[in-house]
Structures are given as structure tokens and as C-alpha cells.
Amino acid sequence: MAVYTEVSDEALRAFLAGYDLGELIAFRGIAEGVENSNYALKTTGGDFILTLYERRVDPAELPWFLGLMRHLAARGLACPQPVAGHDGEALRALAGRPAAICTFLPGVWPRRPAVAHCGPLGGALAALHAAGDGFSAERPNSLGPQAWGPLLERCRPNGDTVQPGLCAELDGHLASILQDWPPLSGPGALPRGHIHADLFPDNVFFLEGTDRRPRVSGLIDFYFACTDTLAYDVAICLNAWCFEPDLAFNVTKARALLAGYNAVRPLSTDEMAALPVLCRGAALRFLLTRLYDWANTPPGAMVTRKDPLEYLRRLRFHAAAKEVSAYGV
Ligand SMILES: Nc1ncnc2c1ncn2[C@@H]1O[C@H](COP(=O)(O)OP(=O)(O)O)[C@@H](O)[C@H]1O
Ligand SMILES: N[C@@H](CCOP(=O)(O)O)C(=O)O
């Protein structure tokens, strides 16, 4: 988890008085996630998640995230729905932070993603992309290619303490990724829409179907969502789901993920051809935020830092792959 901001019993009870959720039965901090403070709430009205927004979330953007979740849920996607208080507002303040309560989703995220998870995951990602149609407000990707150079500069003072020569290697990758990146508009531009941008295994819940195969029961954590290249979201998932714990690429998982996606929203030839560079960019993006966090996580925060070098290994794989055939297609 993360719990960066502690909430007292008294503060929570006063906060809940603004809702029609009944009496508080229990609440506890959740020790997963890295971005925001999350609490599981049980009231006489049911189970909910209370989120206090921290760090990278710009409060001015919260109405967009909550609006997108409402839109996706109304289109049938299983995702958290923001709960409004008596005054009709879902976005409120608690313990000095912006805060919201969302519906609780059943299911568990896979600690060891298997091939059997990757097909349903691909299908759920494509369903998310389709469901985003019609949500007219846009949010630029604040962690897109234009952000990687400045982020690398902020990592530079400590980067080489994580691994000697790391920053110089990243300079090289960044330059070649930016050179190959598909244009955002005009000839060669790829389809755009609302993307999740952080659909890692810990943000996808599964339940077992009657055939005993895993089914996606919900997608959570939309606080990196933005309006960007749809295939970039696929590249993020190839990074997050298709490498084994020893960081070997599992082409069978990639094939399953892409087949699941294509069954709902077929990727065009241009999107497929762009996957190698999109995968390099996605690996660099997560490497950089992890590297920054490695040196800058506040002491005492109840959070587990994530290893940046796992993403260096992925980045090297993609840089060597070059062709889309490396992804099993
Ligand atoms: N709507 C939800 N339903 C059920 N559990 C949730 C929900 N939202 C968050 N959680 C729980 O909280 C954890 C952290 O949530 P997440 O949104 O990933 O946090 P962060 O934004 O800090 O990364 C999840 O792994 C899950 O256990
Ligand atoms: N998925 C990112 C970190 C963001 O974590 P989340 O808990 O918000 O999914 C990473 O692995 O670096």
C-alpha cells in the first residue's frame, strides 16, 4: 500500500456524516499500491474504498478521473464508481487531502500472472478503450514522451548510485525512442482515446468462472489515465504482464494478450508495427518513475518501493527485439 496520511476514527466518522452510507463498522489502511493512501471501509451500507490523493495526483485533475470512471462504469466496464455525498459531490477533503469514496470491487489480483490471465486481460483492456468513446474531455499524458527527458534530469543526481553508467545508458535509449516515436497527428499517427496507462497486475481483479478459468472482475486505479495512443496501453501491458520473475520474456503470454485484445478491438497493421518502440517507451516511463521514487520516497511512508532495474532489463529486451515478430505475431 500506501498510507501516507493517517485518518483518525473521529475524522472518519465526521467525514462519513456527509454521506448516506450508514454506520461505520470497520476501516483499515491497505498495504498495497504506491501512489495514494487507501483505506478499506465497511459500513452498514456495504464495502467501500476511501482514497486520499497524494503525490503525483493534481487535485485539479480529480474531476476528470472521477468523471471517466463514472462514464466507463455507465458503459458496463467493471471499475470503481465514485460515491456522492448528500450534496451530490464525490470529491471532498479529509485530513487535509482531497478524498473520495468509491465502490468496492470483488476479486483478487494475480500475484503470479499466468497465460490464462493474459487473454482476459487483453480483452478487458480493449473493452476499456471502447468504453472510453464518448467521454469528450481529454487529459494529456503528463508522463508521456515529453516528460521523460525532464524526469531523467531529476534522476541524474542519484541515478548512477543505483547502477553505475545507468544515466548514460538511459540517455541513449531516450534519444532513440524519441526519434522513432509515432507522430501524434498527421500521416503515421495511431488511433487515440482514453487509456488506463498503469494496467499492471495489481490493478486487475479476477474471479474464477464456472469453467474454472480466470475472468476479469474489475479494473482499478485510474489515476494515471489520460488521452493518448491506444496501442501504448497495450505496450504497457506487454511490459507488466509478459515477463517472468527472472525477467525472461514469455512470448506465449504476449500472444494470449494480443489475441484477447484483437478479439474485441483489432489492432491495425500500423499499431502492430509500432509495438516495439511503444514497448521501449513504456519500459523507460516506468523505469524513470521508479528511479525517481527510489531516491525520493519520504522516510517512514508505509510503502514498498519498486525496483527500477527490472525495467532496465525489459527496456534492453525491447531494444534488441526491434521487430514485432518478437512479440509472437
Ligand atoms: N475499488 C476497489 N475495490 C477493491 N479494492 C480496491 C479498490 N481500490 C483499491 N483497492 C485496494 O487498494 C489497493 C491499492 O489501490 P491502488 O488504487 O492500486 O492504489 P495506488 O493508487 O496507491 O497505487 C489495491 O491493490 C486493492 O487491494
Ligand atoms: N505500476 C507502477 C507504479 C504505480 O503503482 P500502482 O500501485 O499505482 O499501480 C510501477 O510498477 O512502477
Automatic annotation (TrEMBL):
Pathway: Amino-acid biosynthesis; L-threonine biosynthesis; L-threonine from L-aspartate: step 4/5. It is an enzyme of class 2 (transferase). Its EC number is 2.7.1.39. The keyword Aminoacyl-tRNA synthetase does not apply. Residues 27-267 form the Aminoglycoside phosphotransferase domain. One of its GO terms (molecular function) is homoserine kinase activity. It catalyses: L-homoserine + ATP = O-phospho-L-homoserine + ADP + H(+). Keywords: Amino-acid biosynthesis, ATP-binding, Kinase, Nucleotide-binding, Threonine biosynthesis, Transferase. Belongs to the pseudomonas-type ThrB family. HAMAP family: Homoser_kinase_2. This is Homoserine kinase. The gene is thrB.
